[in-house]
Write the structure tokens for this entry.
Amino acid sequence: GPTPTLRPRAVLIGPPGSGKSTVARALSLALGVHGRDTDNDVEQRAGKPIREIFVDEGEPHFRELELDAVLTALREHDGVLALGGGAVLDPRAEQGLVEYREAGGLVVFLDVSLAHAAPRVGFNTARPLLLGNPRAQWQALMEARRPIYERVANLRVVTDGLRPGDVAERIREEI
Ligand code: S3P
């Protein structure tokens, strides 16, 4: 069977602006374990920022790199893992998360309203999927993905009005 100590203790999922990266940092510090972020893994391997991958190679190529980063991290990483907002869309990623849960891992959906996500995202040009009308795009993404976030997670934390440290503490109680 899987070796629990070789696996991340918590995986954070949720839309852009839900605070996944910041909470992952706070939680990994609190637990004294490594923190990892699949967006960073993809950027490191590609040698360029995500928005450039979208421009140069397109979203499908980004999703391939992302799936590989997610499955590798779920397999190798021991600590706290933050996933990109769309990383749960691939059924193979979802399957990986189901197996991770079955091995005792905690998959946390950071739920957030548009009003609280907006200032975090900044709705600048850094996220290629939110160009054009960022608020409408964000809402469309969230509406389409909410069912996936909800069925993949075994813990949901509504982060509205909470500081990253509070969210981390809430998760720590469940580990
Ligand atoms: C995406 C979210 C981003 C990044 C990419 C695509 C998405 O990550 O992976 O721009 O599809 O929601 P964050 O959720 O960290 O912003």
The chain has a mean pLDDT of 92. DSSP finds eight helices and five strands in the chain.
